[in-house]
Amino acid sequence: MLRITDKIALEDWELTEQFVRASGPGGQNVNKVSTAVELRFEAERSPALTPPVKARLKRLAGRRWTLEGAIVLFCDETRSQARNREIARERLAELVRKALVAPKRRIPTKPTRGSQRRRVDAKKQRGAVKALRGRVSDD
User: Fold this and answer.
1) Are 91 and 37 contacting, i.e. CB atoms less than 8 angstroms apart?
2) Residue 132: Cβ within 10 Å count
3) What proportion of the chain, given as a percentage, has pLDDT over 90?
4) Among 63, 92, 115, 133, which residue's Cβ finds the most Cβ atoms within 10 Å?
């Protein structure tokens, strides 16, 4: 069980971990030991999350969201399998916590009459400067 908040916890059946060989430095150890972890969370089928939270989670996950509605996180930062597993679980918990926060609704505002007047005056002044840049006539 992965605890997200006091009220929300992800069950063990929702999480699948697979250990694979990591790429990068590590000497002979990298060819022998499967230290990298691939954590799969069945987000679409999760009863712990509400539909709006799932929609925000899908947007936040980006390309980590699969067509089946799962989130796949990959971690091969350390040479320790246990530490990589811990990091992947922390990342998933943080992602779900971010999805739990509903964004504030934007209230559209209109520019004030004074700001509109200042903008038009500045445009007129700039246009006058550019108009004076023309050719000088022989008078």
Assistant:
1) no
2) 7
3) 60
4) 92
pLDDT at residue 27 tops 80: no
Q: What's at 131, amino acid-wise?
A: A
Alpha-carbon torsion (122, 127, 133, 137), positive or negative: negative
Q: What DSSP letter does each residue of the chain carry, written as one string?
A: -EE-SSS-EE-GGGEEEEEEPPPSS-TTHHHH---EEEEEE--TT-TTS-HHHHHHHHHHHGGGB-TTS-EEEEE-SSS-HHHHHHHHHHHHHHHHHHHHSPPPPP---PPPHHHHHHHHHHHHHHHHHHHTTSPPP--
Model pTM above 0.85: no
Angle between helices 51-61 and 81-100 (to 10 degrees): 120
pLDDT, position 34: 85
CB atoms within 10 A of CB 96: 25
Whether the Cβ atoms of residue 71 and residue 64 lie closer than 8 Å to each other: yes
What are the pLDDT digits (tens) for 79-106?
888 999 999 999 999 999 999 999 899 9
